[in-house]
Write the C-alpha cells for this entry.
Amino acid sequence: MDYYQIVKLLTDIPIWILSAVMIYFGVFGFVGLFFRKRYKKTDKINRFGMIIPARNEEKVVAGLIESIKKNNYPQDMIEIFVIAHNCTDRTAEIAREHGATVYEYNNPDECTMGYAFRYLFKCIEKDYGTQNFDGFFLFNADNILDIDYISKMNDAFEHYERKSVITSYRNSKNFGSNLISGMYGMYFIMGARVESSGRTILGCSTRVQGTGYLINSNVVKNGWNYVTLTEDWEFTADQILGGNIIRYCDDAIFYDEQPTSVKIMWRQRVRWSRGHLLVFYARFKELFRAIFKKDTKHRFSIYDIAVYVLPSPLMMMVLQFFQILVLMTVPLVTSTYTFKDIFLGNTANIWANNGLLVATLKSGLISYVFLVLGAFVIYFTERKRIKNVSVPMKILVALLWPIFLLIQLPMDIQAFFSKNLGWKPIPHADQTTFEHVNQKK
C-alpha cells in the first residue's frame, strides 16, 4: 500500500461511518415501496377539529373547506377552524362564508405557521375546550382531501388506540404543471412511500412533513409550543422523545399545491434547510443521549430521528471536499508534482493519474442512474395515483430528479450562513377542486 492509498483510506473512514449510520434507510425504502399497511374499518366515530392556518389564501381556502364538508365522514363530528394569520386579503371573509369558524391574528413579529397554531389552540381551548375533541387534523390552506381521507385516518387513529400521531399520503394538485412542480411531487411521494411507509410497517416511528397529520387532543392540552421555521421537525423530535410514535396511513390521500418557479422553490427549501439546522442545534444532543438511557422507549426510533436531524448532505460534502483537498496534496509529499502543477494548471492530470477523477465520475454516474431508476419505480408503483401527467413530463422529471436533490447542497450552505432567515408565505393559486381529485371515485 503506497502513501496515496494510505491517505485515501484514512480520509474514506469518516465517509464510510456517515454512510453506515444511514444504511438501514435502504431497508425501509424497499419495504415501503413494495408493501402496504392497511387498517381495518372501525365503527368508532371520533370528533375532530380541522386546523387550517391561512395567510393571504383567499384563492384556495374555500377549496379545502369544501373538500372537508364533502368527505365521507359525519359532519356533526367535525368542526373547521381557520386562523387568518397576518392577512391583508379576504381570507377570513371567504372562510366564514363557507362555514368555518374563523379567528384572526395579526402580529408581524410572529409570522411562522407555528405561531398561528399556538394562537388558534388558545382560542379553541377558551371557546370550545380542546379536550372536547378526540383529535385535531393540521392542514395547509391549499390542501384538498380525498373523499375518504378523514375516515381512513380515523381507522388508523383507532388502530393505534388514539395514542399515535397519524400522517398521510401527500400527493400534488399540480404535479404536471411544469418540471419544478413535478420534481416536488416526486419528492413528497418518495417521502410517503420510501420514508414513511416502510417505517410504519416495520414498527419504527416516521415523521410529520408539514401538513396532513392527525394528533390526539392531549398533545395540545397545554397549548402548542412549536414556532420555529420548521415546526414539523421540532414537533416530531419532541413527540418521539416523549415516547409517542408517529404512524403513516397510506390510504389517506390529500393533495398539496407545489411551487412552479425556481425562485419560490429556492426560497422555500433554504427555509426548510435552515429550520432543519435549528432543530439539529436544539435537539440532537438530547436525542443522542436518549439512545443510551435505560428507560428510553422506542430506542430505534430515537436513533432514527437523531440520524434524520443530522445535516448529512452538508456533512458529506464537507468530508468529500476535505478528502479531495488532502489527496491533491499527496503529490507534493511524494515530490511527483510541484505546487505550481497542482494549483496552476495540471490538477486534472493529477486526479487522472491517481484515479481520483475516474472514481469521482464513476460514483456520481452510479448515484445518478440509481436515483433515476428510483423515480421510474415510483411511477410504476404509484401509477394509479399520479394523474394527469404526460409521459414526456414524467421522463423529464425522472431525468432531472437527481439534480433536484443535488442542488440541496448549495441551499444547505446558504442556510448555514443565513442567521436571520425570515419566513415568507408561498403563494397559492391552483384551482384544482374536490371534484377534480375525486373524479374516478
Summary: The chain has two domains: 3-21+312-417, 47-309. The chain has a mean pLDDT of 89. The two ends are 65 Å apart (CA to CA). Residues 236 and 399 are 32 Å apart (CA to CA).
